[in-house]
Amino acid sequence: MPALRVLISAEQIHARIQELGAQIDRDYAGEPVYLICILKGACIFLADLARAVKTSARIEFIGISSYGKSKSSSGEVKLTKDLDVSIEGHHVIIVEDIVDTGITLSYLAKVMAQRKPATLRIATLLDKPERRQSGVKVDYVGFKIPDEFVVGYGLDYAEDYRNLKDVCVLGE
């Protein structure tokens, strides 16, 4: 079993999500917003973020993949589950677990923009700016992290480790 090292504690995550929720409340001034969760990794972040905002939050899910069972992005993006509703004319925040190369999120942002939302923003728990290959603007960032492979708090390696309460570096 690989070694795990805590990078961001559950307490740090909780505190930062409260700050992000307050920022979203200020930005939307009570207007309803769709929080679109990118499955599966962002589901835990989405749940905590939705409870941190006072703004009316509608929740939707989209599935997209570029990793498979590897520790690095394949570069090939695949839509695995589409939205169940139209987002045209609505305020939308794409909720992501981690922005790494930006390839997947850049693709998804273009797809969502074609659906004509009133506004389109991105929230991510984790950001690895060193790895960016595709320009993507992230509006709400929980934590900037170094270029290490992380798991926990929804993030996985081959579907394992999602249930860890902390974000941990996965060792060899």
Q: How would you write the strand order of the largest sheet?
A: 4-3-2-5-6-7
Report helical residue fraction. Answer: 10-25%
Q: Which term fits the overall shape?
A: globular
How large is the count of helical segments? 3
Profile the largest sheet: 6 strands, mixed
- The H-and-E topology, N to C, reads as EHEHEEEHEEEE
Overall pLDDT? 91
- Quick one: how many beta strands? 9
How far the N terminus sits from the C terminus, by CA atoms, comes to 9 Å
- Into which percentage range does the β-strand content fall? 25-35%
Low-confidence stretches: none
Regarding quaternary structure, how should these chains be classified? Answer: single chain
Judged by helices, strands and strand pairing, the structural class is alpha/beta
